[in-house]
Design a protein that fits this description.
Elements lengths: L7 H13 L3 H13 L6 H13 L3 H13 L7 H13 L3 H13 L9 H13 L3 H10 L9 H13 L3 H13 L6 H14 L2 H13 L6 H13 L3 H13 L6 H13 L3 H13 L6 H13 L3 H13 L6 H13 L3 H13 L6 H13 L3 H13 L6 H13 L3 H13 L6 H13 L3 H12 L9 H13 L3 H13 L6 H13 L8 H13 L3 H13 L6 H11 L2 H16 L1
Length: 589
């Protein structure tokens, strides 16, 4: 407005200001004013704008601006602006689009842009994220041909891709190659490999990598320790994980939420929720606060163990400390109320959950449906099913299975059949629970042949849909009730041939029949003894020990020859001798 004439640097400051506030309309006005006044456009200004596009999640705007640089604004694009746009696209997770943009620019003779190390790093990252690991390796091998050298980031990215693809040995070889080529491995490179080995359960190799890490002057950090804690928890070595946590503290490496969360989750999965709760106390004593993931794991674990009052107490403690529950925590509490038969309380929690803006998931609704079926209120279970649809929560195979199972247990076979037909018409995948429930429904209605027909359908399906011990027990019980013992024996032999071990219920079904419904009556010892022999011949150790346990509880002692076979299979001579030696050494002490 005055006599002062804007200079090129003033325009750059203007662009920088508009870009920081993500004011793209003002940016366009500034660009057009510069164009009218024939100002010189510099690449630095465009890179600032590309970054703004990244912050605003507008990758296509960055691509468009890149193409306008050379033609409309007469500013030559270089590898710097190219990398900036490529990075914006990748940050948005548009990996296929990034590779498309890369191929177009590199192939363009008019642009004449030659990729550098950063370009290759970005391309390898995109390929690895898409699972194109072999192509990423090819690009990696071409880097030296382009007069570039891979850096530690390049190696780390490719190692991560190989590890995610399950090719850990190749990733470890890449670490050796990296050192031979004179590239210094950093914490990231070591941690990528250590994490992969720990997830695989190969802690011995992971420890060797830590030794190598220390030799190279890299100090293990919280990521390294977290990987080991996770690996130890996977193997069930929770005490060692706790010791590692203490070592971590003594080495002045501060455990974070991931460390404690992993350890607590490990205890919960092992059925040791009380120990997990102690870790939470330790977490808070160290000045940390338990997050919603930690609480959800503990509350869910306590509900599964039947310690519902403790779960409620922990819930109150969580809310009292200002930790906002999430969908998982709400769902765990609702499931706990349903297991306790407290459906009104479960509904109240559901209402609170919705009021606070948390959407119930299929697990939430499934818990309520099961709860209502368990207390004999199938009408309210159906209302939950409808509510689920109204809340745009998809009905999956588990929901259908619960509905079929509930109707069959309530003796409502026609309703169960309607749901079954609906599953088939909608292409919903039938699971073992749905089949077993329907077979149970037919058998309860004295339509055993219909149940057998479904059972035979299961046998014709793939390995993921084969009958389990529950399915077999339903049919065995149905045939035994009809006094069709020979048909029941036929199903039992099929069960053994299909590698499905009988359990305590299987034994009880046959024992009851042999003692009450055959002529002459039998105590069942001979039957169970023969069953043990059949399992030993098939080298099914777990099944063998289960039946032996039943026999001992029922005071039906196996034959001496059967005992000999069982002991020979279960007790390996070297291990037995080792155990004997250890016992003698303890006694001598």
């Amino acid at each position: 407005m005055g006599s002062y004439k804007l200079g090129d640097l003033s325009f750059y400051s203007l662009i920088e200001n508009h870009a920081s506030s993500l004011d793209f309309m003002s940016l366009e006005e500034a660009l057009h004013q510069m164009k009218r006044e024939r100002r010189i456009f510099i690449e630095k200004s465009f890179i600032v704008m590309f970054k703004a596009c990244g912050k605003a999640h507008l990758p296509e705007k960055a691509v468009d601006l890149f193409h306008r640089m050379g033609g409309e604004f007469q500013c030559k694009q270089t590898v710097r602006s190219f990398n900036s746009v490529l990075n914006v696209i990748i940050q948005e997770g548009l990996f296929s689009r990034a590779l498309e943009f890369y191929s177009h620019v590199v192939a363009s003779k008019s642009l004449n842009i030659h990729p550098n190390s950063l370009t290759f790093n970005l391309v390898i990252k995109a390929m690895c994220r898409l699972g194109l690991v072999d192509q990423a390796v090819e690009v990696f091998r071409e880097i030296p041909l382009q007069n570039c050298a891979p850096d530690s980031y390049t190696y780390s990215t490719l190692m991560h891709g190989l590890c995610k693809d399950g090719r850990i040995d190749e990733a470890v070889s890449l670490l050796d190659e990296m050192q031979v080529e004179g590239t210094f491995p950093n914490q990231v490179a070591f941690n990528v490999l250590i994490s992969a080995l720990c997830k695989k359960g190969d802690l011995e190799r992971a420890v060797k990598l830590v030794d190598n890490m220390l030799l190279k002057g890299c100090v293990p950090n919280e990521v390294t320790y977290n990987a080991f804690v996770h690996g130890l928890c996977l193997k069930g070595k929770l005490e060692k994980a706790v010791n590692l946590l203490n070592k971590m503290v003594s080495n002045k490496c501060v455990p974070n939420d991931i460390t404690f969360g992993t350890l607590i989750n490990g205890f919960v999965k092992q059925g040791r929720v009380t120990d997990g709760a102690r870790v939470l106390v330790s977490l808070e004593e160290r000045g940390h606060r338990g997050n919603k993931y930690v609480y959800s794991s503990l509350i869910s674990g306590l509900c599964k163990e039947g310690k519902f009052n403790h779960a409620i107490q922990l819930w109150k403690e969580m809310v009292g400390k200002g930790c906002e529950p999430n969908t998982v925590v709400y769902s765990a509490l609702i499931d706990g109320f349903c297991q306790e038969g407290k459906l009104d309380e479960a509904r109240e929690v559901l209402s609170e959950m919705k009021n606070k803006g948390y959407l119930p998931n299929s697990f939430t609704y499934n818990s309520l449906m099961k709860g209502y079926f368990e207390v004999g209120d199938s009408h309210k279970a159906v209302l939950i099913w409808k509510e689920m649809a109204n809340d745009n929560c998809n009905h999956n195979e588990v929901c259908y299975s619960i509905l079929i199972n509930g109707f069959c247990k309530a003796g409502k076979l026609m309703e169960a059949l309607m749901v079954w037909k609906q599953m088939l018409s909608r292409g919903i995948k039938l699971d073992v629970v749905a089949y077993s429930s329907m077979i149970h429904g037919f058998c309860n209605a004295n339509l055993v042949e219909h149940g057998l027909k479904l059972f035979n359908q299961m046998l014709c399906q793939g390995p993921e849909l084969q009958p389990d011990v529950i399915t077999y027990n339903i049919l065995l019980n149905a045939f035994c009730k009809q006094n069709s013992v020979s048909r029941a024996i036929g199903i039992l032999n099929l069960m053994l041939n299909q590698s499905c071990d009988p359990d305590f219920i299987t034994c009880d079904i046959f024992l009851k029949t042999l003692r009450e419904n055959v002529n002459p009556l039998q105590d069942g010892r001979e039957f169970l003894d023969e069953l043990v022999v059949q399992l030993v011949k098939r080298q099914r150790t777990v099944g063998t020990t289960k039946i032996i346990e039943v026999m001992l509880h029922k005071f039906l002692l196996p034959e001496a020859s059967t005992w000999a076979m069982v002991v020979q299979q279960i007790c390996k001579p070297k291990k037995v001798q080792k155990s004997i030696n250890e016992c003698w050494s303890r006694l001598s002490c």
